[in-house]
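For the sake of clarity, the format in which proteins appear in this thesis is described at this point. The fold follows as a row of integers, each naming the local backbone shape at the matching residue. One such record is shown here in full, so that the layout can be seen directly:
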Amino acid sequence: MTIKVVELFAGVGGFRLGLEQAGGYDVVWSNQWEPSTKAQHANMVYKNRWPDSNHCGENIEDVIENNFDRIPDHDLLVGGFPCQDYSVATTLKNSKGLIGKKGVLWWSIEAILRRKKNKPKYLLLENVDRLLKSPSKQRGRDFAVMLSSLNNLGYAVEWRVINAAEYGMPQRRRRVFFMAYHQDTALYQRLESTVAKEDWLDSDGVFAKAFPIKELTEDMVTGILEKDLVTISNTFNLDKKLSPFQNCGLMINGEFFTTKSYPDYMGPFKTLGDVLIDSKDVPEEFFIPDTEINKPKGWKYLKGSKNEPRYNKALNYYYTYTEGSMIFPDALDNASRTIITGEGGKSPSRFKHVVEQDGRLRRLTPMELERLNTFPDNHTQHEAISDTKRAFFMGNALVVEIIEKIGAELYRNITTKTEPVLAQS
């Protein structure tokens, strides 16, 4: 049995890699478009790795608006969409649903689900974990809008915040993953029939099987979501200090159940040191000269603690700036810190990784950054793409092994529960 997949906001293909490694999935269409750049570098990587794929490098909003038939029917929709303001902007008189702000790509997902006659039966989406508590004046509103819109389209949802390092992977990267099951699926019906929702969250659900957690002991927070998205956008949790949404939970039939979970992993742990290549294979440009380490505003200064007077010219006032020190160089016997998009380039930075190898300090190479996200070696290598851009890709990417584990467990559930899928071509 093959599960047909559409991959949105594909980047350099992390979702595709994970699902292909899990087995049983076929990406029938993918889309990647970066609005802020003329050169579409991620598309170059994607097409280089999958030259025969049905890949689209155009603005997904334009495709949906003007050429919707290009998006084939599929069983599973996946994507790591940008974290933006998800407030509902308006209701269109001639539309069947609600449209958010232009350029907010959650609404591209919603539009595909709403307009597809044969709706995808499953969704697997990823975002930064602050999604569960944003924006600051309506904690949890953005996620509530998403949950309610999926409920209105006939889906149940479960979510989990997963830190890759807590399950043995070599990077501390915390992201929220959420899966949706259409009401026609056996997974939806199993979830609906589960009386004790905590059983689904800590033992029976897809996330619980793929990434085990300890038995839930904290109180469950519950609530009912408004069906009207404008009402949710305007009133949900207004002026409350805390979001109701914890790091794991589920929603079905408009009711959500959420609580705090803790990982339960006893396997091996990979470290930053495990991903390093031999120093003789590191290009000289990645080694940091002593003059760059100790100079004013250099590496040692930026990584160190600070307690110094500063002046705000715009507001015309003096203040004391304080900042704690960071481990310098980075520890090799633990998982790495989170890769950020500014990881590349020679300029000193507080947040870039620096390791000591054979008595010399250096930055991480693109291949080592790929390994921290469990990508294949040199996945992003391309003659037209710089090392700085390759580092940027990894700052935006997800951890492939997480998708592989979730994909394997989802496939097991689908195939052992005789879930219906699209007719095979």
